[in-house]
Amino acid sequence: xxxxxxxxxxxxxxxxxxxxxxxxxxGKVTFSDGSPVTFGTVAFVTDTFYxxxxxxxxxxxxxxxxxxxxxxxxxxxKVYIENSEEITTxxxxxxxxxxxxxxxxxxxxxxxxxxxxxxxxxxKGATVYNITVEKP
Length: 136
Known about the structure:
Elements: H1 2-17, E1 25-31, E2 41-45, E3 50-54, E4 60-62, E5 75-82, E6 85-90, E7 100-105, E8 119-123, E9 127-128, E10 131-133
Parallel strand pairs: 1-9, 1-10
Antiparallel strand pairs: 1-4, 2-3, 2-5, 5-8, 6-7
């Protein structure tokens, strides 16, 4: 009897794990002048969850959570842009003159920090969330 009850409980747990469904979330990231942002990663976060989507050369993105482009669970998310810096490395000429790396912000900082971002999105169903950011 104990084996039977354990099997039923295990089956119920497995079925419930498959119940939560990710929802498609996509959109386009543009600057305030209308030109597309062609670099970086869009991040959707809560206190306990993280999902991301790479920004394509035309500014579009599709979110993923457990695998690329699989969507997000329902919820309200803070949204920000990662990997938005332009990194330049100038090779050094000698051992005494090593390579130098510099970075330049390409998006206003408030859109690149999860604690400062003014962006948020509520995901209830398939969602198109277009994002407008400012240049530094």
